[in-house]
Design a protein that fits this description.
The protein is of the alpha/beta class. The chain is built from 15 helices and eleven strands. A hairpin with a 4-residue loop joins strand 10 and strand 11. 59% of the residues are buried.
Amino acid sequence: MRRVAVVGVGQTKFRTRRDDKTHPELTFEAMAKALEHAGLELKDIEAIIYGTMDPFDGIYCPERWDAIGGGIGKPYMKISTGGTTGLTTALAAYEHVASGLFDIAMAICTQRVGECVDAQPVLNTAVDPIYERYSGLGAISVAAIQATVHMHKYGTTEEDLAWVSVKNHKHALKNPNAHVRLDVTVEDVLKSPMICSPLKLLECCPRSDGAAAVIFASEEVAKKLRDNPAWIFGEITISDDYYVGDRPDLSHWDTLTIAGRQLYRAVGIDDPTKDIDVAELYSPFTIQEVLELEALGFAKKGEGKNYAKEGVTWVDGDMPTNPSGGVLCTNPIGAAGLVRLVEASLQVMGEASHQVNGAEVALAHAWGGTLQFHTLMIVSSRKKF
């Protein structure tokens, strides 16, 4: 497979509703920004991989409508894999270039959750319809169960989780594209309305409208386009059983651990805490950032709960995590995974809005389904370790 790099990224501002633009106009806004960032024109893009989660938009096959934003006459693929959609779309675009089929391909994801009357009933359709759906197992309730189990097993407290919220909201204040930009305290989080015990309003993600785009290029093309591309070190995706009740331990994401170890082995990472400078993790709820830190080897089991409170995961800490504010502050569901790659790429390019000093290697992550799918990608300013 050929070496591939990210040469351009773009994203819109994310808000509760983007009524100022139609669906294809929102798509084109992100595409235009990515093209400008890469120094390319639309005619230079050889293929487009488009991702979205149709149910949240209330539009059947929005890729057909959005094709007028720049896909007419080009090879065009649609990806839809739940919360992992954004990063799975990126993987498809990357592999189209790595395989030699194209020299330049664009991943583009658009989501207008503001078009959906209520996202939770849609999310509840992701669980088994016979045994689990009528217990109300939507995204928030599953995350609440994860939190409860982690609290029981490791003594995690509501204050520990509140610190994760404080950290991400502080980070989002420096991200002009972030949906929720609030300066909150631990007390603010603890006093916010209870959504699903023990998770409170400020520990749960919003529903966001917006789009993101990433342009991938072969090594030969990437060298001509920019001096600071984000080289793709490796990628992986993994799936788990369909039934939430079959998970052996909801206090630990076993499949994410497996995926992380396989990816680290493939790219030559011996110690993720030393070899990875910044992580953009898909954490729509505070507890999930804790679980992801532990599953990916950044923290030992039961110790991730202390990282935000102790400053480890802050932008100037030892393991900067979600310096963009993450999914907790911006959640265009089908595009959120691609935003993680946008932010990770900007970090290693040295162009992020909340830049981590000296960041050379970044990890992007997304999860989807009923805690079922995980996708990972590692980018770097270096071509190899």
